[in-house]
Known about the structure:
five-stranded parallel beta sheet, single chain
Amino acid sequence: MLRNIPENHPRAISLQIRELLVEGFRSGIVVEEGLIAHGRGEAFDYLIGEITTKQAGTAMKSAVALMMLAERPVISVNGNTAVLCAKGVVKLAELTGARIEVNLFYRTYEREVAIEKLLKANGAREVYGVGSKASAAIPELMSDRRRVDPDGIYIADVVLVPLEDGDRTEALVKMKKKVIAIDLNPLSRTSQKASVTIVDNVVRAIPKMVELAKQFAHLQKSKLQKLAYGFDNTKNLEKSLQYILQGLKSRD
Ligand code: PTJ
């Protein structure tokens, strides 16, 4: 049960998100480190004004188009993502034809199963990467994130990694996969290494991506291709940083 947060509290949404994570921690889905990672995310969210910026919107269009054009798209889910947006992840997977795979930095069988259960309670039919299904390995990666499903991330051409740590993004790109990151920190290694970086909070980004996927269902392939491939991640990240800097300067 979430603690009572007054609706009219000026930071109500932010406090509710924290409560979701604390609950997720108590139920064994989120790790302690996930709470710390959220704090870092919150700080960057504050700097972008807790809104979806124009740059994030552009990146999302490219990301959703990439997923819709992909042959084997996969959405990778960790503890934080599961408690913050299980329903949205399932919907996005449905609309883009993506598989959903559990992939954890702090991997335990209990957490994998708890996340699978949560995803299934939110409508997922099949969840990849749980237990012995994670039998393939990402080359050159030493963390437990290397363990992937041979029918999921291992053979994927496009992987969405909401809230990630950088090593795996780099390794997946080396495997010639397109990696879409959602990360509030435009300076993180994940953000810098991904093919498409959405600098936004997953709680705002995933629902917006669901809406885009609905709109894009009617687009011609050539239009999707233009959106997917006519995107420059380095330039877009630079603009995201400029956005933060301008916001700080305007307070002078
Ligand atoms: O569930 P596990 O075992 O896979 O572990 C998950 C964590 C998050 C602990 C693990 O992936 C980790 O340590 O991540 P990092 O290296 O701390 O990176 C998390 C990144 O996500 C940071 O750059 C944060 O700024 C960013 N972030 C945190 N919360 C959000 C976020 N980005 C988007 N939306 C958020 N809500």
